[in-house]
Specification:
Layout (H helix, E strand, L loop, with lengths): L4 H8 L4 E2 L1 E7 L3 E7 L2 E5 L4 E7 L4 H7 L2 E6 L5 H8 L11 E3 L5 E3 L4 E13 L2 E13 L6 E4 L2 E4 L1
Antiparallel strand pairs: 1-11, 2-3, 2-6, 4-5, 5-10, 6-9, 7-8, 9-10, 11-12
């Protein structure tokens, strides 16, 4: 049975997802970041999370070779940040507030939570690569309103 891609996307769009920005630091490319909504927890012991990225993304090779990445879970007030890291804009980190995490990777200011991760594995999954990271440090804010993606657009909770 063949499943129509548009129908599949529409069905998946009915599942609300949180929005994250995943950051890394590469020797050649410098600081990188990308908006991701394919994020999930994997394990409590050890603490592990995952995100996936389209194989054709030029960032895929960087995440496959860098040892560390950070995942910032966006607040309802960070739609502009989501848009910035979703697009091809140069010098993204010059336009946002951030600090260096203990792992040397950018931690974005104002997120609901930030997870500093050590890459544990990468798996091919169709047209995406699934990156698994072990959480080595976390930061949380008291803010509770999340930025979500639902039915092709932003929503808040």
């Amino acid at each position: 049975m063949s499943i129509d891609q548009r129908e599949f996307r529409n069905a998946l769009g009915k599942f609300a997802t949180g929005i994250t920005v995943v950051t890394a630091k590469d020797i050649n490319s410098g600081l990188i970041g990308v908006t991701i909504n394919s994020f999930a927890s994997v394990s409590l012991e050890p603490p592990m999370v995952l995100f996936s990225l389209k194989n054709e993304s030029p960032l895929c090779d960087i995440f496959a070779t860098t040892d560390n990445f950070n995942i910032g879970i966006l607040s309802s007030e960070q739609q502009d940040l989501s848009n910035l890291f979703a697009g091809p804009t140069d010098n993204k980190f010059d336009q946002v507030n951030w600090s260096e995490g203990k792992n040397g990777v950018p931690v974005l200011a104002g997120t609901l939570a930030n997870l500093e991760c050590k890459r544990a594995a990468a798996y091919l999954g169709g047209d995406h690569t699934i990156f698994v990271g072990e959480v080595t440090m976390l930061h949380q804010s008291d803010q509770e309103d999340a930025l979500l993606y639902f039915k092709g657009g932003y929503k808040t909770l």
